[in-house]
Amino acid sequence: MKISHRIAASRPLATTAMHGRVEAFRNEGMGIIDFSIAISHFPPPAPVLDAVTAAVQEERTMPYTGVAGALDVRRSLCTKLQRENGIDAKAGEIIVTNGAKQALYEALYAMTDPGDSVLIFKPHWPAYVTTCQLLGLTPVLVDLPDQVTPATLGACPRADLVIINNPHNPTGKVYTKQELEAIRDWVEANGSQVIVDESYEHLSFGPAHTSFATLCDWRALGVVTIFSASQSYAMMGWRLGFALAPLEIAEAMQTLQGPITAAASHLAQVATVAAFDCGPQQHMIDEYRERRDTVLRHVREVPWIEMKCPDSGPYLWGDVRALTHDTEAFAEALLAEEGVAIMPGDALGVPGFIRIGYICDDTWTLMEGVRRLVAFGDRMAARR
């Protein structure tokens, strides 16, 4: 039996691997509290459920659509981009995908050749590096500065393509307009193309989100912007996403998507339109802010962890270097001793940190998980 060298040399995506382990433990009856991933306790918006129900009841068959998505769906997403992001786009520049991961894979595949370099700021969403490795690309990892300036960018190596995650997973950073303008000037000077992941565009707790494409000639520069319904609309398992790309890149992405999945399912496309028509879900943002602040108050006096208050997103990013730099071992021991799953910073490019998804389950379960985490860390500190 032969397994290809390219897949044999690859590792499963860290986030999905940990979530799979948690699911396996739960199937065995173990009460695991899962902070390793962010799965909202909210239901999807009612208009989404209504639209999908109506589609099931009113249509005898669920039709195949064009690979990029039904024309009316893509036109609706163009309206969303104009209304919410200030981006003028045409339907041919939109491709509907099975979540942000598919859009990322297809964009990287279409925009690069094996051996090309991809600059990624760390900590990073693990899929960026893993996808680059699968495609034979060279990830170039650079520390994400507190503030992006021409000087910090000037110290970065040139790359064929740059990935920007705004708002940022896991730190919660929301790039300012000035920072994005500095990135624009830098990539233009270097002749780099850009993928901008704006999956968390509606999860800001205050700072305004600016779409990178509004600050440049995105068609000429070669900018692909990725959007997702997963976190903003509590629809993680629905696998809904889309990408905005210059026509040549969008068509190349379609060429790849055709033999892989063809179009996203008809029902997923119906749900995508309904979700993005809903706009920001303020009730979700308000509760996430309250949960964020509650956890931060609880750990404020814990000597071995430092957590900055994130400006966005479903994660808290904790510095535990005062306790250990080996956060993989920390995460394994925490899971074994306390039944709490977290994501070690090693998987996101920065050992000595941990990522906590704080939007799952009820508030009591959230705080019980935090209590167990603190108790575990206190025991570890006492043994040192």
From TrEMBL:
Lineage: Bacteria, Pseudomonadati, Pseudomonadota, Betaproteobacteria, Burkholderiales
Superkingdom, taxonomy of origin: Bacteria
Keywords assigned by UniProt, alphabetized: Aminotransferase, Pyridoxal phosphate, Transferase
Organism (species): Massilia litorea
InterPro entries named among the record's database cross-references: Aminotransferase_I/II_large (IPR004839), AspAT/PAT-like (IPR050596), PyrdxlP-dep_Trfase (IPR015424), PyrdxlP-dep_Trfase_major (IPR015421)
Single GO molecular function: pyridoxal phosphate binding
Annotated Aminotransferase class I/classII large domain residues: 43-358
Signal peptide (UniProt feature, chain positions): none
Family: Belongs to the class-I pyridoxal-phosphate-dependent aminotransferase family.
Needed cofactors: pyridoxal 5'-phosphate
Database matches in PANTHER family: ASPARTATE AMINOTRANSFERASE
Gene Ontology BP annotations: amino acid metabolic process
Entry protein name: Aminotransferase class I/II-fold pyridoxal phosphate-dependent enzyme
